[in-house]
Amino acid sequence: MKKILFVFLFFSVVIFLLQNFDSIQKESDGLKSNGIYSDYKVYPIKTPDSVSFAGEVVLLKDNDLIERMDRELLVNTYWQSNMMLLIKRANKFFPIIEPILEEEGIPNDFKYLAVIESGLQNSRSPKGAKGFWQILRTTGREMGLEINNNVDERYHLELSTKAACKYLKKAKEKLGSWTLAAAAYNRGINGIFRKLELQQVDNYYDLLLGLETKRYVFRILAVKLILSKPFDYGFIFDDKDLYYSESLRSFEVDTPISNLSRFALKMGINYKILKIHNPWLIENHLNNKSRKLYNIKIPN
User: pLDDT per residue over 60-76, tens digit each?
Assistant: First the structure.
């Protein structure tokens, strides 16, 4: 009788385990994903005691500033794929941006503003801002860029960088600091000026701002910290993993071009390559009724 009872119990346990295998496996996977016995671990990011932007230092001593800095460091460090792309692109485009900033008298830290604006791509926002510096049509024209259906110099990296520099110098002159000038790039010069007047403060860190502008400078600071010392934040790569600029030459044009595809073939390239290096050419022809001098980049 005991043997029969034992056999019955044994087979009952086996049947139970077989019937509930899926749920046991799911629970086991859940424990792994919750880090109970997983090798994957997520750690807090150490927040610095102070940060600086364009030579302007701020102590991170109150909870508001500490939490704002912490948020951007966490978001940018743990969005690993995006940050790795930014590291690769920075190696390609910073050597183009940095000399222009220096020539225009703009602090080098503003290259990180371009990073958070566009991810160092010729992107377009829902509001119609375009290029690496995300310049609106009206602002671009004010800063001297040609913008029409045929040519859009917001997509011209060198010229749009110079236009952004003009705007930033104007903002610095009006607002008094480079940090406020950076905030104004997001909120507008008059928008930041009105906030300062209303709240009777004189710096970005004491302003009560909407979420986007509240995060804006701290996003720049976080990207600056990570891109300056990527290995400290866990990003491991070799030089060969990065992106590099091609060797280019300028071809001067002061006449119309009726067909850019045929022009590209004459230059020994195709239309795709022409557009990659000259994204400011919007259509498959260049009107140039004014006989303006353009520089078209051609790979060597």
Answer: 999 999 999 999 999 99
